[in-house]
Amino acid sequence: MQDFINYMERINMFKQVIAIMEFDSETIAPGGGLAQRAKRAGFFELEVYNMQTSDTIKNFLDTLAPVLDSQDDIVKALYKEAKDEYDKKVKIPADIMEQYAKLTEESNDVWRKARKANDFAKFAPYLERIIKLDMKKLEYRKDKIPAGGCVYDVLLNDYEDDMTVTIYDRFFGTLKGTVVPLLKKVMASEKKIDTSFKNAVVDIETQRKISEFIAKKIGYDLNRGYIGVAAHPMCMSTDSTDVRITTRYDETDFLSSLYSVLHECGHAIYEQNMGKDIAGSLLGDGTSMGIHESQSRFYENVIGRSLEFWEFITPELKEILPKEFAHVTPQMFFEAANESKPSLIRVEADELTYSLHVIIRYEIEKMLFGGECKIADLPQIWNSKYEEYLGLTPPTYADGIMQDIHWPIGYFGYFPTYALGSAYAAQFLHYMKKEMDVSSLIRKGEFSKITDWLREKIHKHGSKYTPALLMQKSFGEQLDSTHLAEYLTNKYSKLYKLI
Amino acid sequence: MQDFINYMERINMFKQVIAIMEFDSETIAPGGGLAQRAKRAGFFELEVYNMQTSDTIKNFLDTLAPVLDSQDDIVKALYKEAKDEYDKKVKIPADIMEQYAKLTEESNDVWRKARKANDFAKFAPYLERIIKLDMKKLEYRKDKIPAGGCVYDVLLNDYEDDMTVTIYDRFFGTLKGTVVPLLKKVMASEKKIDTSFKNAVVDIETQRKISEFIAKKIGYDLNRGYIGVAAHPMCMSTDSTDVRITTRYDETDFLSSLYSVLHECGHAIYEQNMGKDIAGSLLGDGTSMGIHESQSRFYENVIGRSLEFWEFITPELKEILPKEFAHVTPQMFFEAANESKPSLIRVEADELTYSLHVIIRYEIEKMLFGGECKIADLPQIWNSKYEEYLGLTPPTYADGIMQDIHWPIGYFGYFPTYALGSAYAAQFLHYMKKEMDVSSLIRKGEFSKITDWLREKIHKHGSKYTPALLMQKSFGEQLDSTHLAEYLTNKYSKLYKLI
Questions:
Q1: What ipTM describes this predicted complex?
Q2: Residue in B264, B293, B351, B365 annotated catalytic
Q3: pLDDT tens across A44-102, in order?
Q4: pTM of the predicted model over 0.95
Q5: A32 and B242 in contact by Cβ < 8 A?
Q6: Do B30 and A223 touch (CB under 8 A)?
Q7: What are phi and psi of A414, to 5 degrees?
């Protein structure tokens, strides 16, 4: 048993160093070193792969399987982690994996060019081949299909434990049923939102100070953290004592960095709050993409986009920038930070419309892996769904079906997880409100009680439990999108005076 | 053969990642992560140790030994690297190594406290035990003693290939014979040097710009480099495409950072200029501490502390800082940057007096390992040498025999290498001057010819050759301190108007 734990700890050490290299690469590493860095990253990733698929790990898994029930949660979670990786990587023959790697690399390249040329027909054959090869890969993983399920379930489960089409159908059904009509009302509303002050010039040094102030305030421990600058905001964690984030600063868009920092701090606080029993180990990180994103969305949206947050932060902001925002009230900041408008591009969508972008992708993936549609018809399907849910039709493929990198590189089953974060966050808020006056705490800038609650319910468990098990243990129920539906209805009805 | 090369490349990958982690740790890593970082560094260092001492490497060495003569320089150098590490680490029994590690850790701790309390007697027994244990370790390495040599030779050779007491005695003899009387003349000189402008306030952002300007100018490629900030100036290289330096900025001492940057750039340019045949490999770094330091000293002192350099840089500096240095001439900068004064602390010594500090330590180490003195007598020996060479007597042990960390942690044989850099640098200058007008190039800020010359003679060979072999190949002669003696005599005679 101790040998198995040590072996997993060895994998953990390699993963930590890969994280450090990645953070270094995204922040301060010189551009000229790219090739050697790629070589080095490849080397260490192969080391991890070799450990995860070794005869040694197979022996551990075989020995542990019959006695697993009598083990503690930590051994069980390590076993699951090891087994998932082993199965995913070993069951499919190496030549198919190689074919797939080559194909997606080529496809990625073709997609980039075709997107520029607005030429879907050029990319379509690659998409077709990727899906075919994916189906072939899935033939080796049929044992992963849940009872009464389908092959797409296996892909969904790759990105979020326990998820299935059945669960997502219900989840997205509720959401769509609320958001689509709500958005129509918002669009019809006569409420005008003043956003003129959003682009006031705030120099980068000041933005840096604001970032640090807010990060500290909401509970990000800078003694175990660091706020860097990178092209893409990110959070990197080796273990709970070293959790770093990045943001980017735009002199004429201070809200962009402020919300990036809040978002990444949500991820970071989760990573910093691991329980003592798992901190520093392979289990000392977030349990899933969905739960991780719930923490970033909680701090970014539930807290950061609330009126109460602006009631708290506006006086602080005015002290730092008395001139720029002299006339701006908390209500005005709140409105400007929450303006909702249907748009074509997922990554630019607001809190209300975001899930609709995800739903469209989910519905199309489900059709693709159910054999219910042809590749050639995709643009038309895409466009009609955008028209139906968001009232817009993309003028180009780049603004439409060719906007995301996921399909060109074979990341099917990934998109749906993007919608989980907000739903979990709203669900957590629902339960949190039963135990404390959340609004009042935010208004007073007293975030420690909120973070303490999240630590006890979510953070400290790390990846000891799958999302479903965590929900069961902490709340006695499963993911439920009615909370998000309710949260969005309340927020946007008030904001746009729909009631 | 390819297996051996691949195995060494594997060690190289681990060493590169250790370098990245170290740089990260010294620059941006959060303080709270110290313990986990130490654990991780220890893990990867042990991995390297295990590879360097494995049965696999022993097999490679045994197989290669009989056919080594027919191999190319690269295989020969890799063999030497592997064999040196193997011998150093395997020949001494593990329990003695463990004892030594424990003892030096304890000794380090005692030294810190004893230094504060100015209590040599408290530290002395530890020093005695370390030397005893070192002698015991050396018994296992008797085969490393050169013909007619002594045990101290083995230690000297650990820090610089090919060095012996015989060589150092001659080397330091010449130097001492010149510097001690020269320093007496300097001290007697009536020349007054104006240093009043050295502490002008220069804000850090401006110093940053000056650093970058000079670094680029002298040939440090920032596309493969990065200038960071750390408590101690350093140079980190994974390979020639990623070579970073750090400096520290003091608002009231801009020369300090300027010379740190020049010094570290010297190291960095060496690392960036590796030849194609070795770049990125284990041989793609500096061949020895002495040769490495020759490059940093060349850029810092030979170039950076020359009158010609100040003739070049003063107008540039005045453009950036017109007010602060309005009245300062190149001659004044030159003089202020070269003021010489005997002092008690090695790390603060100037170009003229530095080697005297090193000589004192060398002479004492030689006595210690020759059994020619008692530990209890060391303070008295130390003080009388400082009086003789530098005309000063330390008022406390902290200013005297207890100032350096080297002996408390068992780094015997290390100090002498500190004097090699300046000597090699002066020797290189001697030969360079035969091929180009170095003064004129510096005055015009045309450093590329100088760097090209150093690349061809030194840089591109990396650690393919030992220092002695490199000198033989590039100059047909060995290290010779008469060049440094001559360089210092010329420079300081002019500066202090001794002629």
A1: 0.89
A2: B264
A3: 999 999 999 999 999 999 999 999 999 999 999 999 999 999 998 999 998 999 999 99
A4: no
A5: yes
A6: yes
A7: -80, -50
